[in-house]
Amino acid sequence: MLTLILSAIGIILTSWNTPNTKIWETIIFQFSILFLVSCFTYSSTNNIYWSHLSSSLVIDNISAPLIILSFWLVPVILLASVNNLPNLNNNSISLFVTLLTFILVSLLIAFTTTNLIIFFIAFETTLIPTLLIISLWGFQSERVEAAYYFIYYTLISSLPLLISLIIIYLNDYNTNLIIINWTPSKLISTPLTLFCVMAFLVKVPIYTFHLWLPKAHVEAPVAGSMLLAAILLKMGGYGFIRLQHYFWYPVSDIISPLLIIFCCWGGALSSLICLSQTDLKSLIAYSSVSHMSFMIAGLATGTNIALSASLIIMISHGLVSSALFALANISYVRSGSRTLLINRSLKSSIGLLPFLWLLMVTANLGLPPLPNSWGEILTLSSIINWGPFSFFAIILGLIFTSIFSLSIYQLLNSGWSHKWNTMNNNITERENQLIVLHVLPLIGLIIIPNLFSY
Subcellular location, in the record's words (predicted)? Predict the structure, then answer.
């Protein structure tokens, strides 16, 4: 743990002392080495018990995959940012790397700490760097409004969580997750549970708490979109998993029945909204809302199968959604627009693009044997086994997801070429490598399906 943090600090110092002509190659190489070091954290875990890194930092089969996902995708995000960030100069590249490293260290602490107060601090620490990435390197003037939406939604929802954690500490003098699981607090009640869970439902986010997400995705640079979809949204799912065990009885008896039905219908409505989107990034963002809503519904059932399914969904969705935003940026760089109609028939000039879109949209809709299908089948099975009330919502969600996923492929890769999208430059080697680095982990999950099971 200390090695990873000190190495990250070393990367920050390197970024401010490396010549601008060599900074991208140097930083990406250093983060790649840091990923190899982080893989040792997963090798030290076992299937059930905590593995202690120190007196207050632990990992298990829930946190280790998310740590590895974070360290894997940060160099990929940097690779996508080369020549794709506006207003770059000698110092802004170093500032961008510093903010990204700061987010990575905060995620590492949040995924390993057992103290709920420290988890909250790390949870909220990621907001300021993400806000700066959106507001400083966004492409349009609306990025300021998107930053306001992002910060207000997350801060307002986090205030009840902070108050609840302070109340728990003042009464129990302890906020350690491991100790609390053995000796639950006498303060546990339905209002306290709702205050704590609300922050994670906004961060995921589920339907009705999602309004900040499409705005943030649309106005963020490609690095910000990949970071939000692939890593930061998973903090909400991770926090919900941890606090679900702590607030087990209020969640299972009172909140779960309402939350399951609410999330299932919210996921179906989010999929329906995707059918009306003309902006490619906004469509992918609403797709994330749909997937995460069904994941939270599965977690609310409280079964071990749903927990394993949620881990598979978080890992695979992080890879697939990040790849979709990278592909959207490939089209945006060439056409100057994210509108589906304007990007129509780019296949005539970019021969490999249809295959990449087909691979990712089928992964997004959950086509076997891609790992999304296993996670969604297990999640939907847990929901249906819990009760038949959400069966119709699940069917609608599956239908709408299939329609809009295939519509993306059909709209972008068929039809006649127009004079405004006639381009002669093919996909570059960097862009090929960018998509391959998303595909390789998916292939690994197909070959070893229980790699990230709980």
Answer: Mitochondrion membrane
